[in-house]
Amino acid sequence: MLDPGRVGPDRREVATEQAPGELAEPVAAALKAFTEHLRYERGRSEHTVRAYRSDLRSLLQGLPELTALDLAHLRRWLAAGRTAGLSRTTLARRAAAARTFTAWARRTGRLDTDPGTRLSSPRPHRKLPAVLGEEQAAEVLDAATTGAEESDPIALRDLLVLELLYATGVRVSELCGLDLDDVDGERRALRVVGKGSRERTVVYGVPAERALRRYLVAGRPALVTPRSGRALLLGARGGRLDPRIAREVVHRAVTAVPGIPDVGPHGLRHAAATHMLQGGADLRYVQELLGHAKLSTTQLYTHVTVERLKVVHEQAHPRA
Predict the structure, then answer these.
(1) Do 91 and 151 have their domain in common?
(2) Model confidence pLDDT, tens digit, residues 113-131
(3) How many angstroms separate the CA atoms of 297 and 126, rounded?
(4) Which residues does the annotation mark as catalytic?
(5) N or C: which end of the chain has fewer CB within 10 A?
């Protein structure tokens, strides 16, 4: 039977009880300030901000105050992820997010010390993704060129998507973000806004130039609507091309050619970098083209054969 003198939990306990999935108010305020720091001060993309916020919500769950975040809590959090079967790459990403957050919290006076400096994490597996060979990439682009011969606006746009992705190695989000003003037709160059709002210039070749001209003459004018604005690549309803549609374009074009491994826009980005290096391009140039802040990232994105490394070594090393 219920005790008539106690018909429910104490009101003070109800008021301070933290609902499952919610953060304590001071902790939530700190997380909000950090995400605004990422977005407005560091210029991180919305995708990056969402990823940080998701990882950190998991880390901060159950903490009554931010000052309760210490090294022991960080280690328990990573250990729980390992027990749950998270991959080494995911654990490494989580640890990086935690270290970035604790460094910011220490710098802004929210923590007296930075516990993240002593947090170790597993090294992620650095496996190379599938990449198209030069002949395979040529087959995919030739097939797309054939498909655009009837000057269908969507087919012309899809051909341009493929040609620019392979010619420049830009990210699909960067490609879809291009405006007409970003195209320098005389120099065959594009002004690209990449991660961290960093601008760079990339160049493209004659096949991409032909695809661009055909699209601007017979493709884009047929797709333009009042909502098109200055966007270069347009969807079927006239708005700016969505990156998801661009990914579908690449997958559809690749799978249409028998014997070609299914890759997306990222695969064409890898292929562009790899084929330029195999053709003798300097790694630093490829780094600039891809918009990487670190050379190690460019090395991961490229497939350089042992044979190619041997040739470079024999040409450059005095005791080769």
Answers:
(1) no
(2) 999 999 887 666 555 556 7
(3) 10
(4) 171, 195, 266, 269, 292, 301
(5) N
Q: Which of 158, 77, 153, 61 is nearest to 119 (CA)?
A: 77
Encode pLDDT of 248-287 as tens digits. Answer: 999 999 999 988 888 888 888 888 888 887 777 777 777 7
The tokens for 16 are 């301070």
Task: Clarify whether residues 82 and 180 are in a common domain.
Answer: no
Sign of CA dihedral 24, 63, 56, 66: positive
Tally Cβ neighbours within 10 Å of residue 214.
20
What is this structure's pTM? 0.65
CB-based contact 251:262 (threshold 8 Å): yes
Question: Looking at the 3D structure of the chain, how many domains does it have?
Answer: 2
Residues 139 and 103 in one domain: no
Whether the CB-CB separation of 143 and 106 falls below 8 Å is answered with: no
Query: Is the confidence at residue 291, as pLDDT, over 80?
Result: no
Here the tokens at position 66 are 């931010």
